[in-house]
Each structure stands twice: as C-alpha cells, then as structure tokens.
Amino acid sequence: MVRLISTFVFGAIIGSIATYLIPDRKNDGFATIRPSSIFPRECVLANEDFQNAFYHLGELYKLSHSLHDLDLLGVRIAIEKKLSRGFVDHSGRARNWEKICKPKELYETVERALADKEVHPTSDIYQLELYAKLENPSDKMLDGISKVAFRRQPYYEPVGCCRRKDPRPIAMTILAQQGERAKPYAPQAYNLMDHKTPLGTSAAQVVAAVNYADSLSKIESMMFKILEEAASHAPLDFNQYERFKELSYALMLSGDAGKRYTNAIETLMDRKIYVRGGLTGRLETDPKYMCSVMDSIYPEHAVTERYEYCSE
User: Which range among 133-147, 256-270, 277-291 shows the weakest confidence by mean pLDDT?
Assistant: First the structure.
C-alpha cells in the first residue's frame, strides 16, 4: 500500500514537472482573451443584495472620478480590478459558485467615466480585461487601446514564477470585437498576422471582423499550417491548439463569410489534441471545443452530427 501511494505521488510530481518542461509550452505565458461575443458564459441574475451593492459601487466609482484624492484613487483601482474579473455568487442558492450576469448599469457607469480618459500605452492586464467588458467604448478609448495593441515592442507583466504576459493580444482582441469599428486598424493588423503567436492570431481576428482583403483565406491557410506542423498527424500540442482556437474565433467574428473557410477545422476534428494531465504531463483527446465552434458558424446545419464526441 505504501509503495502504491509512493508510486502515485512520484508520478504526480513527474507529471507536473513534465507539464512545465515539455518544449511546446515555451509560448504559453502570453495573455489572450476570448472575444466576449463568442460563447457567452451562463450566469445567474443578481439577487437583491448584489443589486444594492452594484448601485453603491457605481456611486462610489463616480465619486472617485470627481474628487482628486489618493485614497479614492485606490478605491477606483480596486473597483476596476473587481469589475475586470466579474462577480460570483457564493451563496447557497448557486451551485458551484455560479457567475453573476454582468450588471449592465454599473459597467455603463464605468464606460461613461472612462470615455474621455487617456488609455495608458502600457495598460495593466486588468485594465484591458475591463475595457473588453465595455459594450461601447468611446472612440478615444478605442484609439488608446489600438496604441497598446500596435506597440512595436512587447511589454510584459510577471505572473508567477518564470512566466510573463504580454497584454498586446488582449488589446488586439478588444479591437476585433468592435466589428466594423475595427476597420481603420485592419491594414496594420493584416501585416502582423501569423499562426505561431497570440499577437499574430489576435491580429487575424481584427482583419476577419471587417473581412479585410483576403484575410479569411489567409486565416484558413494559417490553420492548415498549424496542422502540418504537428508531425505525422500527431495530436496538436497545447500552444498549437490555443493558436488554432484563436484563429477559429476570427472566423466566427467574420459572420456568414467565415462559413466558406472551415475546411481546416473539419480536418482537425478528425484528429487529436493534447491536454494537460497524466504521468507524462499531457493526454491525447478529441478537439471537443471545435464542436461549439462549428455549431456557432453553421447554426442551421448540424455539421457536428458526424462526430460522436460532440454529443458526449
């Protein structure tokens, strides 16, 4: 029994170490977000206590902008950090600490307060995650966010031991989720497209959102390149699959036009991917996430019926 437990613990340790040492994790420390319009997460309505708290948070946030006080600056930052993450119901009525639906009026208060404020060229990730939750950022905000997205040199935020996050891909995705408002940024984003980095794939989202030039055919070619780089039809590694998903978001943002460029997605659905886990640090499995992607792109056609794992 002792030997069995020792073997299990040793295997878990080796698995954890392997997960961090295998070469295909080398780009995994970058920051990306899923466009907020894609696969909105299920949520529960705020109860009366939360609604009351949201009202007072809004009033306090407005006060923090009207008074130049360092203590209130700290309060404002604390509110913004909380809003960037969203709210979770920890009460007994919610199972598994369910996410609370976004308090629209509170975020509109923040949107109005920030409309005329400068966006810092090296914004913190929490600030960008907050901007991503605003439905209609001002033109001034969007222009400031574009300056973050198109910085020539990356700037990093340390996250944990030996990891780093580049906020530029988040800024790029924020532009993409604005649809036609992203049109002025498409030519510059087009030149940054690639299939190996989060910045390159989030740039693809910008050009796809406005159907710029031949962006959709180029995105499909990039997806096939990812598949080709997995040697001998081997499963896609973590980073390859993340980049593939980000390119699939680009097709989703393109609307009906993206329906003609899903061949690479269907090719992947006949293959495997790696997920983290097991004694070796990774496990082979089906790309189930692509089921939701294809259902979103083809809501009127049951493309996923051909794949048993989509119904599991």
Answer: 277-291
Read off the DSSP letter of residue 30.
-
Q: Cβ neighbours of residue 269 under 8 Å, at least 6 residues apart?
A: 286, 287, 290, 291, 294, 307
Would the CA dihedral through 191, 195, 197, 202 be positive or negative? positive
* Total residues found in the chain within this entry: 312
CA distance 23 to 274: 13
Q: Are 98 and 80 in contact (CB under 8 A)?
A: no
How far apart CA 11 and CA 127 sit, in angstroms, is 40
pTM of the model: 0.86
Helix (H), strand (E) at residue 289? helix 289-297
* Residue of 144, 127, 145 lying closest to 81 (CA atoms): 127
**What is the residue whose two structure tokens read 């119904």?**
311
Q: Residue 17's closest CA among 276, 309, 237, 200?
A: 276
Query: Would you say 162 and 28 are in contact if contact means Cβ atoms under 8 Å apart?
Result: no
Give 221-267 pLDDT, tens digit per residue.
999 999 999 877 899 999 999 999 999 999 999 999 999 999 999 99
151 phi and psi, to 5 degrees?
-60, 135
Residue (of 112, 62, 104) closest to 87 by Cα position:
104
Structure tokens given for 2: 């002792």
**Rounded CA gap, 283 and 55, in Å?**
46
For tokens 């696969």, the residue is 39
Cα–Cα distance, 60 to 186 (Å, whole number): 38
Question: What's the CA gap between 231 and 213, in Å, rounded?
Answer: 31
The per-residue pLDDT for range 75-109, each reduced to its tens digit, is 999 999 999 999 998 776 555 678 899 999 999 99
User: Residue 256 is which amino acid?
Assistant: D
DSSP 151-207: -SS---EE-STT-EE-SHHHHHHHHHTTGGGGGGGHHHHHTT--SSSHHHHHHHHHH
